[in-house]
# Entry
Amino acid sequence: MALPPGGLSAARAVRRIVLSLGLAGALVATSAPARADDDEPHDFWHQDTLTGNWGGLRDTLAEHGVSITATYTGEVFGNVQGGIKRGSSYDGLFLPQIDVDFEKLLGWRGASFRASMIQGHGPAISSGWSGTLLGASGTVVIPPATRLYNLWLQQNLFDDLLSVRAGLMNVDAEFLTSATASLFMNTTFGWPGGTGINLPGGGPAFPLSAPGVRVKISPAPEGLYLQGAVFSGDPTGHNGSNSLSTSIPSGTVVSFNGGAFIIGEVGYAVNQAKDAKGPPAAYKFGAWYHTSNRFQDQRFDNIGLSLASPASSGVPRNHSGDWGMYGVVDVSLYQTDGGGGLSAFARLAAVPATAI
# Structure
């Protein structure tokens, strides 16, 4: 089923949770005296945040486990030669977010909460001007949309040995990530095109999210972890097809349609401490499986002919289930005393021949 914003009592309950947390944050702020901001830099260009410390209110909220942030990214691109047409475009992304540490706020040990939304606007230079298959920017939202993005609760247990997160969330926040690749802005360096093209709606990755549960185990030695997650199969609210013609919703959809998306990853990071003797490195290996029975063959139609044949029906053959495997390596090649340096990364993936 698909749950549109404001459509059912569950949606109203979600809003009440967010409003209650906001009220709790306000009560915390008013119950403690605001700090004098004499120590704050009064120069706009030297304060830590754009809006300052709110007369000490921001620090007071932080002491009680409440962090409120809002970021805005604006981009101007121009296509000067080739592609579909010459010209320029502007796109923007507004991301407000509230994080709550319930141990500080309520004494609930190991519990944390996040609520966020996205508001993306403006056309994409890739689709209207340059015509590239993969986007020039990883922050553009296609189509422009305003939607709830994260609404999850996390519980850590046994001195953070075990972590469980459940709610509305996105897989690319924790899986198949590369610290080095994240420095680049092209969509190629975020959620990989191989998974984005194969999965319904591109998968529960930016700018979409889906209901899910993630379990993570971080045993000794430090730096080793094993994590797995199960997400609702189609974040668009449709039937689990990976057809590129499937429409992407412009609002919030909490969907349990389209099967299930299952992913697991094991990782190991070495020399992460500042006083480590060797160069930092991180290694990850993972696999995913999707249970939908509506995956479209990329080569053959439903009567066994090539989709490129003039006699083809034009209707792709459907497959049940899809899968993939991947590996990620991040290695520091050179480091300066000031924290800079040079690093490299590699990502390898494998998917069935019928999927690409």
